[in-house]
Amino acid sequence: MATIRTMQNKRSSTLGLVIALWLVSLQLVCAQNMKSSTALSIKDSTDDLNDVEETQSYADDEDLEVFRPTDKWQTLKPDQAVPAGSHVRLNLQTGQKEVKLGEESLKYRRDGNRQGMNTNNPSFTAQELKEALKKLKEGTDDSEGSKQEDAVRARFKPIEELKKDMEALDMLVETDIQVMRRLLNQFNSTNSTIEEKITALFDLEYLVHQVDNAQNLVSMGGMQLVIHALNSTDIRLQESAAFVLGSAVSSNPSVQVHAVEGGALQKLLTLLATQRPMTVKKKVLFAVASLMRHFPFAQGHFLKLGGVQMLSELFQTPGAEALRLRIITILYDMIIEKELITQVGLDLIPDSSHQERLQQYAEVSLLPVLEEQGWCRLVPELLASPEHDWREKALRALLAMMAHCQSQFKQHPTLTTSLTELQNQYKELVLTEQDVGEQDGYFGEILALVDSIVVKMQQL
Description:
Layout: H1 2-36, H2 49-55, E1 63-66, E2 74-75, E3 80-81, E4 86-91, E5 96-101, H3 103-107, E6 109-110, E7 113-114, E8 123-125, H4 126-138, H5 142-155, H6 159-172, H7 176-188, H8 194-207, H9 211-219, H10 222-229, H11 235-249, H12 253-261, H13 264-273, H14 278-292, H15 296-304, H16 307-315, H17 324-342, H18 354-362, H19 366-372, H20 375-378, H21 388-411, H22 415-435, H23 442-459
Parallel strand pairs: 1-3
Antiparallel strand pairs: 1-8, 2-5, 4-5, 6-7
Helix pairs in contact: 7-8, 8-11, 10-11, 11-14, 13-14, 14-17, 17-21, 21-23, 22-23
């Protein structure tokens, strides 16, 4: 029994010794870990103003040793300067600053040296740094700077010359009146060629679109020159003069009065009644339409001069088919304008002389003249045209002339058949419009005109 107890005591002693050694080893490992964690890293950037001030806190006259950090932490001495981009930390265990390269600096390091870093001079004095900054600011080569300055001066004008040029430009600016006077002098000069006169009229046409310029044209005597040019033997001057006249009188009542009083309407109708190229007659019809628009005095004068008969003859002239739409438009506008102006509250130009205007329109008896000149037969001919706008104008004219032409429309050999064909055609076109989402489209309007005429024809 004594032997067994002795063996147990030895085992207990050995086990206790092992446990004690294990505890001591554990304490040593913990102590080592605590020691390594006592260094607190403080990231510092010398790009900040505080770091610049700290670096500049040393005496200006002392030499600053530039510390060369690596990718390992190293102790920083008090008299050493830290390069920009380095990391700085304070080791709390030793109380010293430690430095190593930052991540951005490591990217530019090659073969143990920093790219672009001057490694020949390990230190710089403050005076050397000041001189370098001074040279950088002022420039090291005065002659080179002078050459650059001369090159810039050669490329740009001095301010004095620019001011003189601007004054010259101001003197060259002309007002519209000055331009018009110059163009009229050019047009009226015996030394000007036909091309120069045509150019002058072309420029005048652009200016007289403005109401004031058109009135100035009258006050300067230019309107009489333009009207007189309608009698020129050169067809190009006739065409250009008619174009200027139509633009000047458009929506300009005072100029319309001067043009009619100056005999413009008679000369325009003469050009329509004689052999002239189609280009001339297009411009003449434009001038006639502009001269009579909203001007019942000119419309009455047009009827007295036999204007409807001239348009009828032109409408039936072989080769003048391109003018038919313009002619129908002129007649239709005259009919609708009178109907609107005679209705209460629908005066297109309301003023104190409304009663006088009503009296003037009452004297314009266009529909009886249209019936007399055979327009009840001529207008339906446009329905055979393949152009939709021609058909539309013809349908509107038929509807406006229905009261005076009902008997002739009923006896017309092809009108009923044409209306039926148009009705079927436009019904299909309306369905096409509706398929693309247009409920009230253009073809629907034309179909409504056809239906209205058909209904009125059935009531005859």
